[in-house]
C-alpha cells in the first residue's frame, strides 16, 4: 500500500513540475497577466482628455466668458440682493440694489 501511495505522489509531483516548465516556456503574450495591460495608444483611444478652457482673446476657441459673472458675484455677497435675484432675476435685483452700471 505504501509503494502505491508513494508512486502516486511522485507521479503528481512530476506532472506539476512538467506543467510549470511548460508555462515558463510559453511566450509572454500568451500569459494571462499580459491580458490585464493594454498599450498606451489603445488606452488613449478609450479615455479622452477634457479640453482646457483658454479664456477670452486666445487663439484657441473656448466657451465665451459670462458677462454677468461679476454682477452675480457681487449680488451673491449681499443676502438681500441674492434673495431678490431668486424672485425677480439677477439683472433686475442688481439694478434695484446698485443702480444702472
What can you see in these coordinates?
With 101 residues, this protein is mostly helical. The protein has 5 helices and no strands. Helix 4 (79-88) crosses helix 5. It is rod-shaped, with a radius of gyration of 36 Å. It starts with a helix and ends with a helix. The mean pLDDT is 77.
Note the run of SSEs as H and E.
HHHHH
Instruction: Tell me the overall shape.
Output: rod-shaped
Mean pLDDT: 77
- Percentage of β-strand residues: under 5%
* Helical percentage: 55-70%
How are the SSEs placed, and which strands pair?
Layout: H1 2-25, H2 40-46, H3 69-77, H4 79-88, H5 90-98
Helix pairs in contact: 3-5, 4-5
List keywords for this structure.
5 helices; 101 residues; mainly alpha
Outline of the structure:
This protein has 101 residues and is mainly α. Helix content is 58%, strand content 0%. Helix 4 (79-88) packs across helix 5 (90-98).
Amino acid at each position: 500500500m505504501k509503494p502505491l501511495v508513494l508512486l502516486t505522489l511522485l507521479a503528481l509531483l512530476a506532472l506539476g513540475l512538467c506543467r510549470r516548465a511548460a508555462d515558463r516556456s510559453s511566450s509572454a503574450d500568451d500569459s494571462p497577466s499580459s491580458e490585464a495591460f493594454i498599450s498606451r495608444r489603445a488606452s488613449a483611444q478609450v479615455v479622452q482628455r477634457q479640453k482646457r478652457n483658454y479664456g477670452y482673446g486666445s487663439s484657441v476657441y473656448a466657451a465665451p466668458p459670462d458677462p454677468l459673472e461679476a454682477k452675480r458675484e457681487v449680488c451673491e455677497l449681499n443676502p438681500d440682493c441674492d434673495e431678490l435675484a431668486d424672485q425677480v432675476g439677477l439683472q433686475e435685483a442688481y439694478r434695484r440694489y446698485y443702480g444702472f452700471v
